[in-house]
Amino acid sequence: MDYTGILKRAWNVTWKYKILWLFGLFAGGMGGGFSSNSGGGSSNRVNTGQGTSSLPSGTAQQFTQFAQRSLPLVIALVVLLLVIGLVWWVVSIAAKGGLVHLVNEAEEGRPVRAGDGWRVGFSKWFRLFGIWFVAGFLPTLVFVVIVLVVVFASVGGAAGLVGLARGSSAGLAALVPALAGGCCFLLIFTLVFIVIRVVLTIVMELAVRYAVLRDARVFEALGLGWSDLRAKRGAFLMYLIQWGIYIAYSIVVFIVALILVVPGVLSIFVGSWPVGLLMILFAVLILMVPSAAYGAFYHAVWTIFFRRMTGAEPLRAATLPTAAPGSGYPGSDAAFPPPPSAGYAPPAPPAPTAPPAPTAGGYAPPEADDSLPPAPWQAPPEPEVPAPWHAAAAQGAADPWKAANELPDDPDAPGGGPSLGG
Which domain range does residue 260 map to? Predict the structure, then answer.
C-alpha cells in the first residue's frame, strides 16, 4: 500500500475542491474536530502573606450582576445553544456521508457538487447513525456506567471502612487495600477500553465507506470493516498515520489559538469582558478554517485508502505493467525487438553436416527401420482398375456408347471393325 501516495492524493483533492471544506467543518476529523478549552480558574485568590486578597477589579462581580439582570436572556441563550448543538450533530452525520461520496466522485472523475453530497448524506443518515450508535455510543455508555458503578462502590466502601476504623483498627487496615484494588481495576479497565475503542474506530471508518459506497446495511458494513481489519489490509497502519497527522495538526492549532485567544483572555482579566468575548469569538471563527480543511483531508484519506484497499481505484497509465523486450503484444512497442547496440554481431549459422562416406561397393543408403511404416514414395503402386468399357472392349464386345449413337467400333480394339489399312 502506497501510504505516501494516498496522503498526497487526499491533499490534492482537498485543495482542489474547496466545497469539501464545508462538509469537513461539520464532519470533523480525528478527535471530533477543533475544540478549545480556555476556561480560567474559579477562585482568583492568592496568598499575600497577610491574608488573602482578590485579584484586580471586580470582573466576577460585573459578570454576576449582568447574569442576574439578564436571567431570561441567559436561559434563552442556553436553549439556543442546545438547539444549535443538536442540529449540528444531525448535520455532522449527513456531512460525513456526503464527504465520502464527494471524494469518491472526485476520484471517479465526475463533477463534485454540494447538492449531491447533501442528498447522499441525508439518504444514508439512518445507516450512518446506526453505525455510530452500535460501535460508538453504546460501548462508551457501557464504559461510563461501569466506571461510575466502581467509583460509587469504592467511595461507599471507603466511607464504611472509615466508620469501622473509628471503632477498631481492622477497618483502617482494610481501607488501603480496598482503595488500591479499585484504582487498579479502573486503570486496567480503562486501558482495555482504549484498545477496544481504537478497534471500533477503525471498523467504523471502514463501515461508513461500505454503507455509502457499497450500500451495505449497518451490521453488514460493520462485519465487512471487522473482516478487513482482521485480514491486516493496512487499516491499522493507516490509523496510526492519521494519529501522527492529528498530533502535528493539534500542535500547530494550539500555537495559533494561543496567539489569537490570549489577548481576549487578558481583556476579560482586566475587566473588559465584552471586548474579550468578541476577540475569543473572532479567534474561534478563524480557527474554524483549518478545522474544516483538516476534516475534509481526514475523510479524504480514509476514502482513498478504502478505494485502494478494495480495488476500486481505477488503473492509470503509469501503473500498467510493462512487457519484456521481444515478447510484446499487439499495439505495444515491446512487439519489436530492441535495436542492436554498438559492437553487436548476429550469431553464426550452424555448419552444414557432411554426407556419409561411400563404401567400397558405392554409396550405401542407411538401413531401413522395419519398425516404421514405409514412406509414401516407397510404397508399391496400387494396380490400376480398368474402366467398365475397357473391360468390355478387351472381351471383344462393342462399345455401348458407339452402339447407341450408331458409330462404328474402334478398329484397333480387339474384336472391332475392319482396319483402314487392311
Answer: 3-34+86-314
